[in-house]
Amino acid sequence: MPSNSQNILQVQNLSKSFLGVKALDNIQFDLQKGEIHALMGENGAGKSTFMKILMGLLKPDSGEIIFEGEVLKSNNVHENLQKGISMIHQEILVVPELTVAQNIFLGRETNYRSWLNDKAINQKAQEILDAIGIKINAQTKIKNLSIAEMQMVEIAKAISNNAKVIIMDEPTSALTDNEVAMLFKIIKDLKAKGVAIIYISHKMDEIYEITDKITVLRDGQYIATKNTNELDKNALIALMVGRQINDLRAAFRFLENNSIKGESILSVQNLNKKGKFKDINFEVHAGEVLGIAGLMGAGRTEIARAIFGLDKYDSGEIIIKGNKVEIKSPEDAIKNGIGYVSEDRKALGFIPALSIKENISLSSLGNFAKTWFVNASNEHEAATRLSTDLKIKSTSINQKVMTLSGGNQQKVVIGKVLLTAPSLVILDEPTRGIDIGAKFEIYKLINQLTDKGIAVIMISSELPEILGMSDRIMVLSKGKQTALLSKQEATQEKIMQYAVE
Amino acid sequence: MQYIKTLRQYGIFVVFIIISLILSFISPQFLTVSNWTIIITQASINALLAFGVTFVIITGGIDLSLGSMVAVTGVTAAMLAHPDTFPVVLPIFAGLLTGLLMGIFNGFIITKSKIAPFIVTLGTMTIGRGLALIMSKGRPISNLSDSFNFIGGGDVFGIPFPIIVLAIIFTICSITLKKTLLGRYIYAVGGNEQAARASGINVNQVKMAVYSISGLLAGLAGVLLTSRITTGQPNAGAGFELDAIAAAVIGGTSTSGGTGTITGTLVGVLLIGVINNGLDLLNVSSYYQQVVMGAIIIGAVVLDSWNQKSNS
């Protein structure tokens, strides 16, 4: 695209690596005044990294950002903010106990006097709010506002910063339809005033309603920039998903005949949790992998947490091997033969200050105990066996888990779950943040589990992984079950279509 | 990483040896059997409280009601220990039971209300002090039976009875933490409460257990103290919780939870005892003793935070 005077932002050959992994590879991006430009890509495509660089939160390894004709060199959020690049965050960053005005001018209070002058900022804030047509009193405390109103305040804050580029990351994820309409009206007003907006969203209908252009990233690479009205939905999905041939395919399941099913291990019927998921129905059989696909926030993890007893559900039934069970805590779930490997390894997976051995035995310690005392030799033996089976790389099983790599920590968590002899294992993003070698081993392990007749539920954002490993795939969108596909009928495009439905 | 933990335990142990050596050079009375008998006997009450609070701190909690529990349990025991009213077992048992019940109360409120242990035990600290004053009508209860007074003042084969109690409780606590299911669960809850729950551990049960243990040991300390001073004092034990917490922290128990040992706490208790004793022998005013003690506590915590940083 030729550069022209209307370009407010030009990004050329931007690259960024983390620990040798390319998060962004040669990104190109042009933004014009008064343009609403969508940035699309799957989870992990590099959108967040790119935005963090624009914000000044990260420093690129190479490439140039030209803002208003000048090379943007700073990697300082404050400086970028002053130049006119603002971001409305996915998680709203406001101080609940302060007023709207105090939040808008947070960190810039002394612009008015060397003393705090609430009167001046109240007046100034109210002017901005009125100018963009937001009906909020500047003296209201933030905690009394709805999420939509907080978002409006964030926009007002960006405007008060004289923002020329506003980045909006999933701005409508917490909004009702009416609030979305209000937001879109404000966005259109901003556009008319020449403000450029980078709009990130997984919601296709919004992209088509409001944006002028779409840039697609995939696996950290720039794929294409098209005018929104020249790119139909299917073509967009094809650009986002791409065709990936992966080394990992060697481990994928290529079952010629998966019509032979084992007994039903878990059956979930009409499971509901308000605001999280609705009317979920599925069954998993012995020796089968059920993949759960969906975008972030589709309710995948929430369903897993409810089945495992980490969260309560409102209604529905969980049936294990034909018996209706009541699962009120992870303790109950483990007793019923369910194991859960969380997506959030650090928070829910392991105890960092305990050893590999102590972590592996943690869920089944009762089995290694005579009344109150831990049987140290049995524990040692079991932990050694699993550590060897899972190829955990360590100096000894007494090494603390916090000193291990991500992949090995994940294996410790899996070891802990396997030691409870589960009949169902739920793996939530089992390969997130681990290197390719460890991924490969986890795929092999899943196949070993199903060979032994264990049922597996695998939640994953990586479509090739879901397609490669699952016998059946459930697709979720906004908490609803939109498809249950067999291995034969599933394709990346189909999954994406159901995921954005 | 293993060696950092070891070094840290030995670290405070090395400090303990060095200070003892210095004191034995300065004061000839320091390194005598009779002086050490005094040090350990005096330290025994703090040790019992410190062992209890070590369990609590490892789970990531705190127990500020220790001193008040000492007063309530001491007064309870004293009321039942007038000469020849009841057999000596009764006041002892009543003291322990009172402590246990107060501990259970702490645990119950903390697990049910999800209010921070700091706040809950701050409340029970005040409640306990009030109860002790109500029960005793604000006056010391003296004239206790000889058999009761033996617990804190008597000796067996020349070894003071409090030291024997200390040795037994040390062994039980140490084994509980190292060898039992409960011990492992205590470390797990303190190390990562969410992960412990997701591993199938009943976190509330573990918390109930540690506050109960803390209460029970405070009851034992209350009985022992009352017997030693041969009076049930409603004002006894004020500030004891701080010495106990200090001993645990000096001994390597991290206030952020997940780490700590009973042996470490014992070294912490003895270090405090030795420093107080040494400064007494050197005729240092008790005002200065407080300054020194405070500096040592800060030093221990600084050491702790350095270790945390080097771990992460």
Account of the 3D structure:
The complex is a heterodimer of chains A (501) and B (312). With 501 residues, chain A is of the alpha/beta class. Chain A has 3 domains: 7-249, P-loop containing nucleotide triphosphate hydrolases (Rossmann fold, 3-Layer(aba) Sandwich), CATH 3.40.50; 263-337 and 422-501, 3-Layer(aba) Sandwich (Rossmann fold); 353-421, no CATH class. In chain A, 33% of the residues lie in helices and 26% in strands. Chain A has helices spanning 47-55, 77-83, 100-104, 118-131, 147-160, 177-192, 204-210, 233-241, 300-307, 330-335, 345-349, 356-360, 376-389, 406-419, 436-451, 463-469, 492-499; strands at residues 7-18, 21-32, 36-40, 62-67, 70-71, 85-88, 165-169, 196-200, 213-218, 221-227, 264-273, 277-285, 289-293, 315-320, 323-325, 338-341, 369-370, 373-374, 424-428, 455-459, 472-477, 480-486. In chain A, strands 6-7-8-3-9-10 form a 6-stranded mixed β-sheet, with helices on both faces. A 6-stranded mixed β-sheet of chain A has the order 16-19-20-13-21-22, sandwiched between helices. With 312 residues, chain B is mainly α. Chain B is 76% helix and 1% strand. In chain B, strands 1-2 form a two-stranded antiparallel sheet. In chain B, a hairpin with a 2-residue loop joins strand 1 and strand 2. The longest helix of chain B has 27 residues, at 203-229. In chain B, 51% of the residues are buried. Classes of the chains: A alpha/beta (501), B mainly alpha (312). Chains A and B meet through helix 10, helix 11 and strand 18 of A and helix 8 and helix 9 of B.
Beta-strand share of residues of chain B: under 5%
CATH topology of the largest domain in chain A: Rossmann fold
Largest sheet of chain A: 6 strands, mixed
Rg from Cα of chain A: 25 Å
SSE sequence of chain B, one letter per element: HHHHHHEEHHHHHHH
Count the DSSP helices of chain B: 13
Number of strands of chain A: 22
Q: Tell me the radius of gyration of chain B.
A: 19 Å
Structural class assignment of chain A: alpha/beta
* Secondary structure tally, helices of chain A: 17
